[in-house]
Each structure stands twice: as C-alpha cells, then as structure tokens.
C-alpha cells in the first residue's frame, strides 16, 4: 500500500497541530481556568496521537500519548496545571516537532530517538503520578468494586512472575487468555488513594490493554465499618505489549504486581470456559465454539461471528433507557443489513419479512433481535454488550468484567484527500506550488514586455504600421490580464503577520524566565496581512529586537519596582497597514537606551570620533546602535550578544525594502518601528542613464527627480550640495560612485539631472545623465560571481532580453 | 449504485485514511470536519441520494461526535442511517457513551483497513465487500 500521500498529509497536519499546541500551552498558562482552551489543547494532542496510530512511529506516539494522558487528567480536573507541567509538555512537543521533521526527511524514525522519547514520556508521566487532589482519586472505582465481593486474597505482595499458574488467573475468561499476552495482577495498597495513586486509571491506561477485570481484593467487612477511602481492589490485566512497557507503566507500584506470561494452548474448545479451565490458557477467538454453525468455511464463520457481535451491539443499544426514535430506526436498518450479510438467502428473506412486520418502537424490535439472534457464536456471548453495560451477567461471573475492544495495531495507507474536509471555503495549498505560480507570472510579466519591442520592430524594420498597432492593442490586453493575474496571485501569497507572532509567546516566556524577568507580551493587529516573503524575512529581525528588549530593555523586577514601575514589564508588538506598507511597532516600557554608554561605546570602538559624539543630540546618539560592530552588551550573553546588533536588523529589513526607526526615552522605554512593503514580488523601478549605461533604481527609494541648473550646485571643498525647497541636499555623481570615468553630463539647457533618493532618514541627490520611464521588474538577486558586488540590489530581465542592473543607493554612498 | 458514506473527523490524516480504505471498497465518500459541517452536509444531501452510513470521530471541535449523532437521530428522513463511531480510546466508557448517543457500532481507531471495511460492509449489508474484507482480515491474521 503506497503511503506517501498519507504520510505527507500526516506531516502537514502534525506540524499544524504542534504549532497550535505550542500556542495553546502558552494560552492555557495565562488562563489556566479556561476550559475551552484546555479542551482545545487536549484535542490537538489527541488528534496528533490518533494520527500517529496510523503509522509505526513508536517513539513519537509514546511521547504524544504521555502528553495526552497528562492533559486528560488536567482537563478532567484531577490534576492541577502548573508551570512544571507546561515545561514538560513544551519540551516534549519540541522533541515531537523534531521527530516529525525527521520523519519528513527520512521517512522513518531511527532507533536512536527511542531513548529520548522514553525520557520525555517518563518526565510527563512523572507528573501524572504526582499527587492528585485526594477527593478526585477514586469516585468511580470504589462503587464498582463494591458490586461484587470476590474471592481473592488480601493485599499481599507477590514478587515477579510466578511460573506456576497463579489462582488469580482462574477467574479470567478463557477468551482473554491469548498466547503470548501478559497477564498481570495488580493489588493496590489499601491506602493508595492517599498517595495520589489512581489504580483504576493506571490499569486502564496499561499499554496494549486487552482485558481488564476488577474485583474486591478481600472481604468488604460489615457495612458499619465500611471505609470508602480504603482500596480493596484486585485488578487483573491482560496486555499484548512487551513486558518492559508494562513494567515501565507500573514502575511506581512494582511491589504490588504479580506477573504471568500466558502460554499457547491447543484447546480451542476451552471457550465455553469454566473459570478453572482457564489454566489451560489461550483460546483462539477466531475459532468458533463447537455449537457454531460449523460449515467449515472459515471466512463465513468469521463473518457470522462479526455479525453476531454487531447484532449484540444493536441489542444492547435497544436496551438502553431513553433510546431515541431515530436510533431505533437506525438499529432496525442495521439489523436488516446484518441479515444480508448472513449469506443464507432463504433465511435472510424470512427474517426480513418478520422484521418488516414488526410494530414500531424499541421493545418489539429488541424482542425480535433476541429471538432471531444469528447463530450463537460462543465467543461472542461474553461480550454481549459490546463494551456497554453488562446486561444479564455472564454465567458464574462473580467478578465485574469490563470487556474491551482490543487495541488495534497500526497500519498505513494511501489516500487521495481532496481539499480539507471537502470544505469549499478554504483550500490548503503547499507553499512551493504558490511559489511556482509566482515564478511563472514573473516570467509572463517579462515576456509580455517583449511585445512593444516587437511592435516597434514591425513598424521600423518591416514597415508594418498596421500590424504594429494591432500588436500594441493586443499588448495592452495581455498587459491588463497579466497585471490582474499578478495581483490575484499576490493576494494568495498574503499571510497574516500573526503567523510570525505566534512564536513570540514561547520565545518571550523562555527568555524572560531565564533572565528572571517578568514580562507581559501584548500582541496587536496580528491579522494584518503582508506578502509571504516579507513575513518570512521579518521573523529574524523581529526576534532579534524582542531579545534585545528582554535582555537590555526590560529591567529585573526589583529594579522596576525601585523605579516606580510595575514589576512585570510590558512588551508590545503591534502591526497595522498604512498605505502600501505594513508598520510594526515594538515597544517596551523598560530602561530605554543609555545614550551616555552608547556614546562611550561608539567612541571606544572607534566608530565615531569623541568630539563628534559629544555633539550628537539624544536622538542621534540612540541611532549609533545601528552602526555595524556596535554592541552594548557588557558580557556577551547567549541571548542577544554575539556581536551582532541592530545593524543586522537594519540590513535585514532594508534588504526587503523596509526601514527601521528607533526612539528611546531613558527610564521610559524603547520604541522600534519597522515599515515594510506589503509585497516584494514585483519591484517598480525607474530607469536612469549615466555614462551611456542604463540602470534601474527602485521607485520606493526615489523621493523626486529634478533638473538643476549647473550654477545652482554649490561646491564646498570636495562636497557638492543643492538647495531644494529650502533644504540642503548633498549631491554625489553616480558616475563617481560607480567608478565610471566620465563627468556628469548636462542637457542642452545646461541642467543636471538629479535623482533624489531616500537613505534612511536622509536624502541624497544623485547626479545622473538622464531619466527614462519606469518599469515593473522581477528582481533577481545577484548570483554566482556577482554575489560579492555591493551597490546593486540585483538584476532584472527586460522585455527585449537585455539585463538591467538595479542599483541599491544605500550601499553606494 | 454504490453506497454513500459520510466520514466525520477533524483530523485530515484520518479522513484521508478512511477515504482511501472505504473508497477502495467501492463506496462513495464524503467528508466533514466536525459535527456542524456534517449536519450541513446531511441537510444538503439530495433526498434521493442520502448517506447510507456515517463514520464518526468522537472528539472534534464545535460539535463532537456524540452531539452530532444525537442531533442526527432527531432529524427526519436521515435519522435511521447507521452510525459507526471511531475513536482512539479503547475504553469501555467511550463505547457506552457512543451507545448512549445512538451509535450502532464502535471501533477503536486506528482500525485496521480490513476491520474498518468489514464492519462498514456489514452495516451496509454489502455482502461481496464483507467477504472480500473478511478474507483480507483473515489473511492479516485478524480474528473474529
């Protein structure tokens, strides 16, 4: 069975679940009382575990299963959620994510993961065994046990596996004695409830549980002396799991266990099973009892046994109080279907006739189902209620037997899932498919730009003016469609910035804990949308900024109290859209930037002369942190130190055409504002000409284009400036910056073309030879031997097949 | 015409698994991700082409399997459709709760392919499919 598709689906969903789980764990920590959150958290873990079951990823399943058990206890209120539990769960889920990644790359899990998985599962289960509220310990167990005073001994402690057949096995129904399975008697201490143990839960969660039986361990004594807080139970468990697993499960109560390995035995007829005949061990449930309609066809017998079982399920269903009319009808229909499966046309026909003749209502149907119960397969009798309430007790059973569906093994399978749940509203598409679409539309935008050239050639070279005009008309149509298409695809790529914010909760929690600080993270505007690439390249700078704030900004609680601030600092990340930009404000109410130290550091590192440092305004001094090689951390911490600082943030943000602004008030806090383009897929550039060559300049860097008479340019030493609307703008010749050995050229009127570009908060005028039109291009980063060249943002392919170099003025100056 | 089965489960992986297993047996599969969506699908299904079987998970957001079956049993023409509940918990209480809600059958997830198909076939009265699945089940070492 090909299972790659199912596996892909599994990995996809597992990652989703893990992301949700991580988020929910933090949410729950904030609002431990919110049952809805807790339920959602549990459900995610539950789903993950359920999915694991479809494959054979034991280590993964083990960790997740332990997490599920733990959360189940928390959810049903028998265990209080605590920071320790959260830590254990977070650690476990981190490892789970690693395992999922491993599965994604390797397709399977190496055996080496077993150890760590075991460790984490144990860590989780340790909390499970931890003290539970005494009141919640055993409400369900005591009455159940009280129902049937049993035979066996007082809580004696029998050490491991007795080779002889122990008498506690005698009460086990033969069907439960399957060769190779392990039987286990668990006699909990009488005062186990006071030790926070939950024997019933422990037994029920036994790995590989096949059968579980409970009865009183000793005499209940007189009613007057009855002590409901004393445990008087004997639990007998049959499991198909390896003994080591079971031992691990019961590792806190090893002295209360007796073991027995069930052996293979030939006597299949032992099914009818007087209790003491169980000593002969296993009966193969596949082999029907002697009274089964034995026509020798094993397949037919299998089907009939199955039918009998489902039939009994229907009878149990009909016997339930308050059964809905709809359920009765469904049961009737199910019974009719079961008759069809009986493979005996004559019998089926007659049965169907009597069924159809029945009056409505549950009682007649129940009566009918009892009368016409198909071929009494003995093996099925014991499970009359199919896991439901034991109806008329099994003969001679003084013990309360809870029949259980055996745990199913795992298996894989392929599938061809269409959309998510067939939901028409949302379609999940793999990222690379969208990227492919984006690449294609990029190529199309460039290809369509060839048409005007073609039109031009038709007119000038071939003298086909009419054809040229038609090509141009056609071009405008294609152009419009391409633009619409591009816009539509861009919309698909828009993601809420919240996808990046999600990890902040965990990050802030971990770091603040490590630093001993208290921090409230406030996130706003997580629905604001931006292009996938923008969002992706945003993650690292944002994390760096947050780390800085936590590390250097927000003070220790004591220092905050001393400064008259609340002990817990606030870190706010707010996103909003402004025009074609996404604005992100990261604000903290910490100590702010110590400008004296910043100045001193900058001078010490030789980044700025001492005399200039003194002249800087407070605001300018703050900006020094953006200088490459600047870091104020006294000791390099493992959080935000390492010698990389805000300059890395700035260059990362500027790489995607964003900008960073930093403002800080000492003692009050710091504000960092990132402004980012909504999308970076298509860049609008203006083409300029200098020294006979054409270059592109991204439009969003261009402030204005002006023609300045040569005499208006002021020369001061080697610097040139021009005054534009009352502001002095420094001028540089592009030729000079590009090391092109040509003087700037004037036009016929003695004017210079000046392209004013924005460099951070400053403007710079570039002297060029001429301006040309603008064009939408797909910016390709410099590759190969060009990678090391500074001053260029990348290249673009033009419609006529030529390559345009796109300038990056920030690196030029 | 082949039978129409509605698979209700919030886990996409499980839905895919069920779709594959039951679909390969020759039945038409529809999916819903929770009880609410399942009820919508039930309501929007053409009257002459109702579902013949529901395969329902228990723990789902918005509306769980129990509530879905309870709601289903109150509806008119579709309420008599058999329900197979499938959930990960091998616990007696879940089977009981499934019965309380009105499920006709309870299977532990993940059910082996043959197991799943066999049970579905019997609930649908589809003898050929049942024989085939039964044979596969036996071949895989399964028991009655």
Topology readout:
The complex is a heterodimer of chains A (813) and B (144).
Chain A (H helix, E strand, L loop, with lengths): L3 H27 L4 H18 L5 H18 L7 H24 L6 H17 L11 H6 L35 E5 L12 H6 L4 E8 L16 E7 L3 H7 L7 E5 L36 H21 L6 H16 L4 H13 L4 H10 L6 H4 L18 E3 L28 H18 L1 H11 L4 H29 E3 L1 H18 L3 E6 L4 E3 H22 L3 H6 L6 E10 L2 E8 L6 H10 L5 H6 L2 H6 L22 H10 L3 E7 L3 E9 L5 E8 L2 E6 L3 E8 L4 E3 L2 E6 L2 E7 H4 L13 E9 L2 E7 L1 E8 L14 E6 L5 E5 L1 H4 L1
Parallel strand pairs in A: 7-9, 14-23, 18-20
Antiparallel strand pairs in A: 1-3, 1-4, 2-3, 2-5, 6-8, 9-10, 10-12, 11-12, 13-14, 13-21, 15-19, 16-17, 17-18, 19-20, 22-23
Helix pairs in contact in A: 1-2, 1-4, 1-17, 2-3, 3-4, 3-5, 4-5, 9-10, 9-12, 10-11, 14-16, 15-16, 17-18, 18-23
Chain B lengths: L3 E5 L3 H13 L3 E5 L2 H10 L8 E5 L7 H10 L8 E5 L4 H10 L3 E4 L4 H12 L2 H13 L5
Parallel strand pairs in B: 1-2, 1-3, 3-4, 4-5
Helix pairs in contact in B: 2-3, 3-4, 5-6
């Amino acid at each position: 069975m090909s299972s790659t598709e199912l596996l892909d689906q599994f990995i996809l969903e597992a990652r989703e679940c893990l992301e949700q789980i991580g988020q929910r764990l933090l949410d729950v920590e904030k609002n431990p009382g919110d049952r809805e959150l807790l339920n959602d958290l549990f459900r995610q873990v539950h789903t993950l575990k359920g999915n694991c079951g479809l494959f054979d990823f034991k280590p993964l399943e083990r960790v997740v299963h332990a997490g599920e058990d733990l959360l189940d206890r928390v959810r049903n209120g028998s265990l209080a959620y605590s920071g320790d539990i959260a830590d254990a769960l977070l650690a476990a889920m981190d490892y789970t994510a690693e395992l999922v990644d491993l599965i994604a790359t390797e397709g399977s899990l190496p055996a080496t993961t077993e150890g760590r998985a075991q460790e984490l599962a144990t860590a989780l289960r340790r909390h499970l065994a931890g003290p539970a509220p005494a009141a919640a310990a055993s409400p369900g167990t005591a009455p159940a046990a009280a129902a049937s005073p049993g035979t066996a001994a007082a809580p004696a402690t029998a050490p491991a596996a007795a080779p002889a057949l122990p008498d506690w096995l005698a009460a086990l129904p033969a069907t439960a004695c399957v060769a190779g399975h392990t039987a286990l008697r668990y006699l909990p201490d009488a005062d186990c409830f006071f030790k926070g143990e939950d024997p019933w839960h422990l037994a029920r969660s036994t790995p590989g549980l096949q059968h579980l039986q409970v009865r009183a361990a000793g005499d209940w004594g007189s009613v007057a002396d009855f002590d409901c807080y004393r445990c008087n139970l004997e639990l007998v468990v049959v499991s198909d799991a390896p003994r080591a697993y079971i031992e691990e499960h019961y590792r806190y109560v090893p002295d209360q266990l007796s073991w027995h390995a069930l052996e293979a035995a030939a006597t299949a007829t032992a099914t009818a099973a007087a209790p003491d005949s169980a000593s002969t061990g296993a009966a193969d449930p596949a082999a029907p009892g002697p009274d089964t309609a034995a026509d020798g066809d094993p397949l037919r017998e299998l089907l009939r046994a199955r039918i009998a079982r489902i039939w009994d399920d229907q009878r149990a269903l009909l016997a339930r109080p308050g059964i809905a009319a709809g359920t009765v009808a469904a049961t009737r229909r199910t019974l009719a279907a079961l008759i069809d499966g009986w493979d005996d046309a004559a019998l089926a026909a007659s049965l169907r006739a009597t069924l159809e003749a029945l009056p409505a209502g549950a009682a007649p149907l129940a009566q009918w189902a009892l009368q016409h119960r198909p071929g009494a397969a003995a093996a099925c009798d014991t499970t009359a209620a199919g896991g439901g309430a034991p109806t008329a007790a099994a003969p001679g059973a003084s013990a309360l037997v809870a029949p259980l569906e055996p745990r199913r093994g795992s298996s894989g399978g392929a599938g061809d899932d269409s959309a998510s749940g067939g939901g028409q509203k949302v379609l999940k598409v793999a990222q690379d498919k969208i990227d492919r679409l984006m690449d294609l539309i990029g190529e199309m935008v460039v290809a369509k730009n060839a048409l005007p050239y073609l039109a031009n050639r038709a007119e000038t070279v071939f003298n086909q003016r009419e054809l040229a005009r038609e090509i141009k008309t056609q071009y405008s149509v294609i152009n419009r469609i391409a633009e619409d298409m591009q816009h539509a695809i861009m919309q698909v790529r828009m993601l809420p910035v919240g996808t990046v914010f999600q990890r902040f909760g965990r990050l802030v929690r971990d770091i603040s804990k490590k630093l001993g600080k208290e921090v409230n993270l406030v996130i706003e505007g997580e629905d604001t949308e931006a292009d996938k690439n923008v969002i992706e390249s945003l993650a690292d700078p944002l994390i760096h900024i947050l780390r800085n704030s936590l590390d250097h900004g927000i003070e220790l609680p004591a220092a905050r109290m001393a400064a008259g601030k609340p002990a817990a600092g606030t870190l706010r990340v707010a996103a909003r859209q402004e025009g074609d930009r996404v604005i992100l404000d990261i604000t903290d109410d910490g100590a702010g930037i110590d400008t004296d130290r910043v100045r001193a550091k900058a001078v010490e590192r030789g980044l700025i002369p001492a005399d200039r440092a003194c002249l800087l305004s407070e605001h300018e001094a703050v900006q020094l942190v953006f200088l490459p090689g600047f870091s104020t951390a006294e000791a390099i911490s493992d959080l935000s130190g390492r010698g990389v600082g805000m300059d890395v943030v700035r260059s990362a943000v500027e790489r995607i055409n964003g900008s960073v602004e930093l403002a800080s008030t000492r003692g009050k806090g710091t504000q960092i504002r990132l402004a980012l383009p909504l999308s970076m897929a298509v860049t609008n550039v203006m083409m300029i000409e200098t020294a006979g060559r054409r270059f592109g300049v991204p439009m969003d860097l261009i402030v204005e284009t002006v023609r300045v008479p040569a005499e208006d340019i002021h020369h001061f030493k080697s610097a040139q400036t021009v005054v534009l609307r009352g502001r002095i703008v420094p001028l540089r010749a592009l030729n000079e910056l590009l090391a092109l050995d040509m003087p700037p050229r004037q036009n016929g009127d003695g004017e210079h073309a000046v392209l004013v570009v924005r460099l951070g908060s400053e403007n710079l005028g570039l002297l060029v030879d001429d301006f040309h039109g603008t064009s939408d291009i797909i910016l390709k980063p410099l590759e190969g031997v060009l990678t090391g060249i500074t001053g260029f943002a990348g290249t673009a392919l033009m419609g006529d097949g030529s390559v345009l170099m796109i300038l990056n003025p920030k690196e030029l100056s | 015409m082949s039978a129409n089965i509605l698979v209700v489960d919030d886990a996409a992986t499980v839905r895919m698994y069920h779709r594959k297993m039951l679909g390969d047996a020759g039945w038409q599969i529809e999916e819903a991700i929770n009880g609410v969506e399942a009820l919508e699908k039930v309501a929007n299904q053409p009257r002459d082409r109702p579902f013949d079987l529901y395969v329902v998970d228990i723990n789902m957001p918005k509306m769980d399997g129990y509530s879905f079956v309870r709601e289903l049993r109150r509806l008119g023409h579709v309420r008599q459709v058999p329900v197979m509940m499938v959930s990960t918990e091998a616990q007696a209480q879940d089977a009981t709760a499934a019965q309380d809600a009105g499920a006709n059958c309870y299977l532990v997830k993940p059910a082996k392919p043959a197991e799943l198909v066999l049970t579905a076939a019997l609930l649908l009265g589809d003898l050929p499919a049942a024989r085939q699945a039964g044979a596969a089940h036996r071949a895989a070492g399964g028991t009655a």
